[in-house]
Amino acid sequence: MPIRLDIKKKLSVSSERVKSVDIHPTESWALAALYSGNVTIWDYESGSNVKTFEVSELPVRCAKFITRKQWIVCSSDDMRIRVYNYNTMEKIKDFEGHSDYIRYVEVHPSLPYFLTSSDDMTIKLWDWDRGFENTQFFEGHSHYVMMVRFNPKDTNTFASASLDRSIKVWGLGSPVPHYTLEGHERGVNCIDYYPSGDKPYILSGADDRTVKIWDYQTKSIVHSLDGHSHNICSVMFHPKLPLICSASEDGTVRLWQSTTYRAETTLNYGMERAWALAATRETTKLAIGFDEGCVVIELGSDDPVVSMDGTGKVVWAKNNEIQTTTVRGLAGAVDDEDALPDGERLPVIPRDLGACELYPQAIKHNCNGRFIAVCGDGEYIIYTAQALRNKAFGQAIDFVWSATGTGDYAIRESTNRVKFFKNFKESRAIKPATASADALFGGHLLGVKGGDSAVLFYDWDSGEFVRKIDVAPKEIYWSDAGNLVLIACADSAYVLSYNAATTASAIAMGQLSPEDGVDGSFDLLYEISDNITSGEWVGDCFLYCNSSGRLNYSVGGKIQTLVHLDTNSSGATTHRILGYLAKEDRVYLVDKSLNIVSYKIMLAVLQYQTAVMRGDFDAANELLAVIPEAEYTTIARFLESQGFKEEALEVTTDDDHKFDLSLELGKIAIAHGLMEEIPPDEKNSIDTMAKWKKLSDAALKISDFELTEACSLASDDFPGLLLLYSAVGNFDGMEALAAAAQKKGKTNVAFIAYLLTGNVEACANLLIDTNRLPEAAFFARTYLPSRVEEIVSLWKADLSKVSETAANALADPKSSPDLFPDLDVALQVEQMFLAQREATKATGISASDYPTAKDDLELDLIALVKSQAVAAPPPPPPPAPPAPPAPPAAPPAPPAPPAPPSDEPPENPFAAVDDPVDDAAAKAAEKAEADRRAREAAAAAERRRAEAEAKRLAEEAAAAEAASLAAEEAAAAEAARLAAEAAAAEAARIAAEEAAVAEAARIAAEDDDLNDFGDDW
Fold first, then answer.
1. Is this structure's pTM higher than 0.70?
2. How far apart are CA 452 and CA 514, in angstroms?
3. I need a labelling partner for 996 at 20 to 30 A (CA). Which of 221, 316, 838, 979 fits?
4. How would you classify the pairing of strands 575-581 and 122-127?
5. 102-107: strand order across its sheet
6. For residue 192, what are the β-bridge partners?
């Protein structure tokens, strides 16, 4: 049977002629040496150009990766060898290698050597640890040496191909060949060694259009492959697949089975001649170099051929070799100091089971792990898992195991025939009710993928049709109990419940529909919107890897991410799930290189989460008792995601998580208690400060101002304290805030706090200390006129360092008093302000005075002081001179002047002598009445001042209006005068012109009279 290989084109780029290709073993890179003199690295996953090296102006015939040094080595037709670092693109070495074209470069797999072959008919060995010294020289061919290859079984020997029609085998210690293989009729262009050690084969391709397989021990030709119609340029044994690949100048690449030598397929991409091939043992990729570009293809899947049973025994295939190991106990216990961390590669020790007769493309354990089925080449072989003894075999396109019977399985013989086997014996065959059966899926029911994008389920025992579901599955996963099934499709997955009792009853009673099967056998539970690449049921929880490299698990449709896995350059996952061991609470994964890793996932945690999703809290509480406290935070986060925040707060042991939950639930006291327990060495951390801020905001929402203040002080939240103190009127707190903010360098907050407390001196000093001298000068002009001269002098001194002219332009009250009007009044206002501040410093101003005190903010104190000075009575006139002596008679005495009005009430003549208590009350009443009258008098004076000011402003406005009208009238008169003058000038001009015309007419008349000689002349 042929090897079923799904060939996918990964990269196809156009370029100059590609003379050599190579594939990086770990990166998704293809290296191409071009006839244009460049070397290019392509990413075959993304299709992008990674790097391009401009090597030479002449063709580059060969380029190879040296991955352990992160180099590329290339040879060109200028006979030089160049070495570059492919990460930094630095040129490591450039030297002349041969006296003619260099055809090939071969890197030693382990030693610091590489070989070069040339048209000068020689081979040279170079040692890069000795500065790329030519340490050995091999001569013996009589024509161009086209290629050299190291023997992977014995790396001290290598073979060379030459146009002298021979293949020579050499040793590193001898300058002459060990022996020569002859058999080609024309020049040999290419050779390769068999990659495994079990066959002593050399592969060769020549201009005689044949590919030959040689046994280098017997020095004979094993087989000759014909089929190409032109010279063969490159041949190789694929290092991972049982294939022989050959590239020819006829433009095709042929693939042959390496054991039967059967021609598998022929590839022709229409890019003219094929020159080079490359592959690696890590992947199934094949790179091909053509005249018109480079192509990278994938031959089948590069997923590992591996399976694990329920006890931790792992079996995998490497080519035809079957190996086994066990992963039990390798990760170590959780409390073990030597336990491997999650994601660390397990140190597995493989054991060879033997060789398989066919090329394995899939390996599957049966339900109890006693047998394994190896599938490939259209055949299957069932072996015992312990000793690889053959139990059964046959031909099949697909093979699947039943989930219950030890020897129960099914095969797909063709697109319309499926066979059932019971205890390794055929029991029945069916024709699926679909146009084409494309695949089989094992489990508690047999799944058949139909060509009409549907899956059909059949009962294992009776072969009866159970149900058709209209989806196109990639894979189907059954739970161990058989009550749940997940159908993974291209971009989503569907979880269904399966009612086995209903199905068995319907089959037993014959209640089956040929079109619909059994009604009620499946019910859709939920959908997972993810691209699942591999998975495993653990109870009712489904563990899976998705295409983007995440290990997730789903409980009741809720997705939780366990870990982010490694991905390739295109972002695709490189791992698949092997299985889950409940005794070790670990899930095991394997990558494409058969490296096995594990992650801790407690079964009890998964069961607890499943119980919560079902709403079975009694069972969940019972399971919680057996879960270690180390997993409580995981449980709490799950509960929080499901909306059970109260329960999460009770369960969690993580202080950060508990703090967040307590704030969300409004339990401020718990959060405050957690903050008080923070160790001293963490009190000043950024995270702690952020928590205090969160707690402060939460306390402020519930108007707990005391806790808000404490949190803000602990977190140095000066803006918050400013808001709090200004809102609640905390004068002492504002003063303390100003000092603390200034000390911590928060000058903006300090300035506002000083200003709100009336400490204008500190405000000015703060501006001076921070070198904000212009602001300080203007601040002093408004609030501290007594310090204007001092601050302006500081401003001048500072500004003079920049511009002396600008500094001299600044004015101060001493040198330019005319530029500071009313400065004396401002100084009086400053003293009044300072006196009032001193008087109210002890008690402050009561909030009850706000309705009257708020109007004081609008007062113009300078204008008020000036108006009071104007309203004061003038001083008394000087005394009159003494009167002349009066007549002797004395005038009557003048009446006594009236007593000045008094604010005191008239004395009550009948009032008795007051006792001390009544006297104090009376004095208090008198003081209150005096204060009231003083306020009324001040208000009356203010009203009079305002009325006088309004009257003055009205008079000034009237005078201004009159002046404006007068100016307008004067302007109108002036305009009339100018118009009259203009009219008179125009009239004079016209009169002058008329006079000139009349004078000209007169002169003309006189001339006529003089020239009039009459008729008798």
1. no
2. 17
3. 979
4. unpaired
5. 102-107, 113-118, 122-127, 133-139
6. 203
